[in-house]
Amino acid sequence: MASAVSYEYLKAIQGVPNGIPTLDGGGQVPVSQLPPDIASPYKGQFADEAELVTEHPLGILADYAYVDDTGSYWYWNPGLGADAAWVNQEITEAAYLLLTDLAKSRVPYLIVPNPVIP
Questions:
Q1: Domain layout of the chain by residue ranges
Q2: How far is CA 82 from CA 8, 58, 78, 85, in A?
Q3: What is the pLDDT of residue 53?
Q4: Do the Cβ atoms of 35 and 17 come closer than 8 Å?
Q5: What is the pLDDT of residues 21-40, one digit of tens each?
Q6: Does residue 63 contact residue 53 with C-beta atoms inside 8 Å?
Q7: d(CA 22, CA 37)
Q8: What's the CA gap between 93 and 100, in Å, rounded?
Q9: Helix, strand, coil proportions of the chain in percent (round to 5)?
Q10: Whole-number average pLDDT of the chain
Q11: What integer is the mean pLDDT of 47-58?
């Protein structure tokens, strides 16, 4: 015979970490009850793109992270349709000129100066 869970126990674990989420007046789980990783668009700092993609294979609009090996912020771009991906939007003018017209139209790039080699 299965044991019954008490009403008092269920009430005690509502809205607490590792408990049962509650809903606000609009029928949504309040941000305060979501894990910090979900509630914040900043996903952290990663050594390279592979580490970022491994840790966060999917994102939502406004998600971003810092990638050390490129020295820039990467953004989740859902505007790529089925190819939604993390995109390094900070690229040099030389790299931008190598992109196809389609790639240029799908991602709003931030052009940074070409590095000066002494």
A1: 42-118
A2: 46, 12, 8, 9
A3: 94
A4: no
A5: 888 888 888 877 877 666 67
A6: no
A7: 19
A8: 13
A9: 30, 25, 45
A10: 82
A11: 94
